[in-house]
Amino acid sequence: MDSIISLKNINKYYGTVVKSQVLYDLNLEIQRESFTSIIGQSGSGKSTLLNIMGTLDKPTTGEVYINGKRTDSMKKNELAELRNETLGFIFQFHYLLPEFTALENVLMPYRIKNYGITQEIKDRAEYLLDIVGLSKVKNNMANNMSGGQQQRTAIARALMNNPKIILADEPTGNLDSESTENIYNILREINERFKTTFVIITHDRKIAEKADRIIEIKDGRIGLDLEK
Q1: The predicted structure's pLDDT at residue 32
Q2: The pLDDT of residue 94
Q3: Cβ density class 125-137: b for 16+ within 10 Å, e for less
Q4: Are 212 and 36 in contact (CB under 8 A)?
Q5: pLDDT at 36 over 60
Q6: Measured distance between the N- and C-terminal CA atoms of the chain, rounded to whole angstroms
Q7: How many C-beta neighbours within 10 Å does residue 218 have?
Q8: Based on the number of CB atoms within 10 Å of its own CB, is 153 exposed (0-12), middle (13-18) or buried (19 or more)?
């Protein structure tokens, strides 16, 4: 399999007067269609790493390639287009819009890029809500759903534009163990059904160990890289 994400000699500093280094000469290849978990203590640099993969942040030095395109030298509008077409994001906090229904929230990434919602697009959104088990509450307002339902809505939203890569930052961080297991199983099913590449940051060792590959970030470097 070929790499869909490639990081070459990544260094990341924050601050101008007092500089602190977060990532140190980091090299990483993520294979297409793979399911990878990234673990590490708070402050280890794992969220910075995920943000660089997702083009939400740029390395101080080094090269970033997403789906064959070099992104660290792209302009803002090029990055926005790449994110919208290639990447889906799931965060610990679902960031749903409370004044919209579950279905309307799922349609939002498509609406941002396009204008009209055709029946075909609406059908796709409903299909995604069905995959995450939310058909019965698709017309509920976002703030009238449980935490687990809101996070499942966020997963469906991340899939709306059929991204090749899903980046998830602590997607089960606010959920109980049953909901956590449920969310993990959904992500796995999506990985297998759509061949979507997943990179998941998690504190939950049980979830991490179910991935095909575990990468541990320690003090801004790769301390462990295990493939099953």
Answers
A1: 93
A2: 64
A3: bbebbebbebeeb
A4: yes
A5: yes
A6: 15
A7: 14
A8: buried
Where are any strands of DSSP class E within the chain? 3-14, 20-31, 35-39, 61-66, 69-70, 87-91, 165-169, 197-201, 213-218, 221-227
pLDDT, tens only, 51-68:
999 998 999 999 999 998
- For residue 141, what is the DSSP state? B
Q: Average pLDDT of 186-197?
A: 89
pTM of the predicted protein model: 0.87
Pure H helices in 117-200? 119-131, 147-159, 177-194
- 42 DSSP assignment: T
Residue 174 has pLDDT above 80, yes or no: no
The Cα–Cα gap between 101 and 153 comes to 10
CA nearest to 53, candidates 164, 185, 175, 144: 164
Tokens standing for 203?
């504190």
Closest CA to 131 of 185, 91, 177: 185
Structure tokens at 74: 């792209």
